[in-house]
Amino acid sequence: MQSALKILFIDDHKSLRDGLGLLLSSRNPDFSFLFASNLEEAKEILDTEEKIDLAVLDLNLDGEDGLGVVTVIRAKKGSVPIIVYSMYADERRIEKALEYGVQGYITKNDGTDELESAIKIVANGGLCYSMAASLVIQKKLFGSSDVKADDKKDGDFYKRYMELSKSEQEVFALLAQKKKTDEIAKALGKKEKTVINQRTMIYQKLYLSDQLELIDYAKKLGVIV
């Protein structure tokens, strides 16, 4: 990332939120965090800041429904990508968040590394969901009537995808967006040779033959739209 990524982090647990922001910005100098504890503070930031690149949002803001902030963000800043970062992993809340069109859903049990990966993936135009959210998506996709009954390979592919490392999943998401290896290396702060090696491993682990097949499965998994 060439310029600072300005991230609005909305969570009423101040110590957790500020601590995570400090940790992630120390790991990634290009991350610049703005913090809000509730809807009113978020509105003030949205009104005063000219540029917001991404929002990280808790679902429960001191008793308020955090998803209501999604509408406010979209009204004030257009199509700013949003990651839900929540303690909740139940199907009902995940489905509701997905209906709001969020680009990521990470649970607080997933850990800091997963949130960091999600920010990088979503900032580069991808989608990133936790295991719990991915299972909800899988149920909707592979359990629906428009999926061919004999296409069992899709379900097997999903299991293999979840066995990729977080680093490999990041590369997978960017490959699915037709990014070149040098672009991926720059976005993720890796050497291009490392990305090329990871690309090879991804193709081997997922039994992919070409980029078109990778893109097709990425769409089915909800990694890209």
Annotate the secondary structure layout:
Layout: E1 5-10, H1 14-27, E2 31-36, H2 39-48, E3 54-57, E4 60-61, E5 64-65, H3 68-77, E6 82-86, H4 91-99, E7 104-107, H5 112-123, E8 128-129, H6 131-142, H7 153-162, H8 166-176, H9 181-188, H10 192-206, H11 211-221
Parallel strand pairs: 1-2, 1-3, 3-6, 6-7, 7-8
Antiparallel strand pairs: 4-5
Distance between the termini: 22 Å
Number of domains: 2
* Order of adjacent strands in the largest pleated sheet: 2-1-3-6-7-8
Task: Determine and state the CATH class of the largest domain.
Answer: Alpha Beta
Oligomer: single chain
Q: Provide the β-strand percentage band.
A: 5-15%
CA-atom Rg in angstroms: 18 Å
- Total of helices: 11
Give the rounded overall mean pLDDT.
84
The SSE string, one letter per element, is EHEHEEEHEHEHEHHHHHH
What are the segments in which pLDDT stays under 50 over at least 5 consecutive residues? Answer: 144-152
Number of strands: 8
> Architecture of the largest domain, according to CATH?
3-Layer(aba) Sandwich
CATH topology of the largest domain: Rossmann fold
Q: What is the name of the CATH superfamily of the largest domain?
A: Response regulator
**Relative helix content:** 40-55%
Shape field = globular
Biggest beta sheet summary: 6 strands, parallel
Textual characterization of the structure:
With 225 residues, the protein is an alpha/beta fold. Helix 5 links the parallel strand 7 (104-107) and strand 8 (128-129). It folds into two domains: 5-136, 3-Layer(aba) Sandwich (Rossmann fold), CATH 3.40.50; 148-221, Orthogonal Bundle (Arc Repressor Mutant, subunit A), CATH 1.10.10.10. Helix 2 (39-48) runs parallel beside helix 3, helix 5 (112-123) runs parallel beside helix 8 (166-176) and helix 8 (166-176) crosses helix 10. The chain is globular, with a radius of gyration of 18 Å. Helix content is 54%, strand content 14%. It has a six-stranded parallel sheet with strand order 2-1-3-6-7-8, with helices on both faces. Strands 4-5 form a two-stranded antiparallel ribbon. The protein contains eleven helices and eight strands. It has helices spanning 14-27, 39-48, 68-77, 91-99, 112-123, 131-142, 153-162, 166-176, 181-188, 192-206, 211-221, and strands at 5-10, 31-36, 54-57, 60-61, 64-65, 82-86, 104-107, 128-129. The model is unreliable at 144-152 (pLDDT under 50).
